[in-house]
Design goal:
The structure holds two protein chains of two kinds. Chain A is α/β, with parallel strands linked by helices. Chain A is about 45% helix and about 20% strand. Helix content of chain B is about 40%, strand content about 0%. The chains are: A alpha/beta, B mainly alpha.
């Protein structure tokens, strides 16, 4: 591999790293519109906790499957500084409400009708979840929801909270 | 050079755009699927095969939210 290709690779890697961390900085003051009894807030106010941000939608089948898992996660780590933030990207609030009426939740729910927050995170797919540390830095990202996703996410959280 | 410039301009005025993953709600609707009713589709295929004494030559991919 010649030096130019190596240099290009290093620059690309640095750029990717910076762009992931810059998303967390850019969303700090972004408003989160509460849904179904959740108060409006901002990402900045969530600092100090490990935050599991999950983007979902009523039309997304895998999202529906992920909800019982998120309920389980919140119950498992409720005594730790861990919060789940589930953000709906439904364009109609009524669709999100109807979905929530048919699914049990025990975590904070928010709405991003215009996709402003989704666009800031540049979601690669649906659903997508991010684990953010107390300083607001994204630790990991999970695209889609599969059987393997549960084990991976649980392992990550266990490694953080059972140190 | 002129050809490159023309290609560049044509590409940029194109009406094509990419749909973001969080904007695919409409694509996930039942009516957007090629075959919204699986059982109806199976029955139609069976009737067609019976009448034509042949089967196949149909089917396509597309639609859906692209989730997972």
């Amino acid at each position: 591999m010649n030096i130019n290709k190596m240099l290009g690779f290093v620059v690309g890697a640095v750029f990717c790293l910076l762009s992931v961390t810059s998303y967390a900085k850019n969303v700090d003051n972004m408003a989160l519109t509460g849904l179904k009894g959740t108060q409006n807030t901002t990402f900045k106010r969530l600092e100090g906790n490990y935050v599991y941000v999950d983007f979902w939608a009523s039309w997304c089948g895998p999202c529906k499957k992920s909800f019982p898992f998120m309920v389980e996660l919140q119950n498992t780590f409720k005594n730790d500084n861990f919060k789940i933030v589930a953000i709906s990207v439904d364009e109609e609030k009524s669709d999100a409400i109807e979905f929530l009426n048919n699914n049990v939740t025990n975590f904070d729910l928010y709405l991003d009708v215009d996709g402003v927050i989704a666009n800031q995170f540049q979601l690669p797919g649906m659903p997508t979840s991010y684990l953010i540390d107390p300083n607001g830095k994204i630790i990991s990202k999970h695209v889609g929801f599969h059987k393997e996703s549960k084990q991976t996410i649980l392992a990550e959280l266990n490694s953080i909270f059972t140190k | 050079m002129k050809k490159v410039l023309i290609c560049f301009i044509l590409l940029n005025i194109s009406a094509c755009t990419s749909v973001k993953p969080w904007q695919k709600g409409n694509l996930a609707k039942k009516e957007m699927a090629w075959e919204p009713d699986g059982m109806q589709s199976a029955m139609n295929s069976q009737v067609y095969a019976s009448k034509e004494a042949s089967r196949g030559g149909y089917g396509s991919a597309g639609g859906g939210c692209g989730c997972n």
